[in-house]
Amino acid sequence: MGRKWNNIKNKKASKDASNSKIYAKFGIEIYVAAKKGEPDPEANRALKVVLERAKTYNVPKAIIDRALDKAKGSGEENYVELRYEGFGPNGSMIIVDTLTNNVNRTAASVRAAFSKNGGNMGVNGSVAYMFDAAAVIGLTGKSVDDVIELLLDKDVDVRDVVEEDESVVVYADPEQFHAVQDAIKSMGVTEFTVAELTMIPQNYVELPEEALPSFEKIIDALDDLEDVQQVYHNVELPEEDED
């Protein structure tokens, strides 16, 4: 289980280095979620998930409010959710989730990020079947036993509850995201170290040292694209890259 949390942490740490890009991406994601239903998180569960995720990235309230106001007003931009799948060096697998208002631009940009850095695109389904969708909720200040007892008492089904890197981490099916968070909040927890809907690989691979630079270039190039919201992969990154 530790590998799962470490990879999420690595991804988040890399994004923290370019907050303005992350905030812009969250602005679009909040706008799209709000336009799909009510711009009220209590009435729109998809929007509530995005806003909970935004908290863990410290997205400023001004950006959140601007996106919600745009959705409530005359904002008529149409975004499409698209998933791309591909391969890095040594058969490493990568999933790219995007939100775009220009499909041709996004497809060309994602393809270029792969091809120019030693990777290649795959067809739909060529990679995703090796990953499982999951909700991942992390917290501090409570023990694993406390959280397990609480979830049992609240009758919330989860896949696992473990201690990793000084956090208690709960893995659950995506549809249990709100149930897990609501249960934990009832313990007095108000902040989460991670609150993600993610794709977790069924198996991890370790790349030889000489292949890591090429792999990291692919991931960095994808993360830098304005239309890319999430990048998932099955590479176990070296311990020294976690800081």
From TrEMBL:
One Gene Ontology term from the biological process aspect of the record: regulation of DNA-templated transcription
Keywords linked to the UniProt accession: Cytoplasm, DNA-binding, Transcription, Transcription regulation
GO molecular function, one term: DNA binding
Organism of origin: Cohnella fermenti
Signal peptide: none
Pfam families, A to Z: TACO1_YebC_N, Transcrip_reg
Chief localization: cytoplasm
Ranges for domain TACO1/YebC-like second and third: 79-235
Occurrences of domain TACO1/YebC-like N-terminal (ranges): 3-73
SUPFAM superfamilies assigned to the protein according to its UniProt record, in alphabetical order: YebC-like
Highest taxon listed in the record's lineage: Bacteria
Protein name as it appears in the record: Probable transcriptional regulatory protein E6C55_12115
InterPro entries according to UniProt: Integrase-like_N, TACO1_YebC-like_2nd/3rd_dom, TACO1_YebC_N, Transcrip_reg_TACO1-like, Transcrip_reg_TACO1-like_dom3, Transcrip_reg_TACO1_YeeN, YebC-like
Family the UniProt entry places it in: Belongs to the TACO1 family. YeeN subfamily.
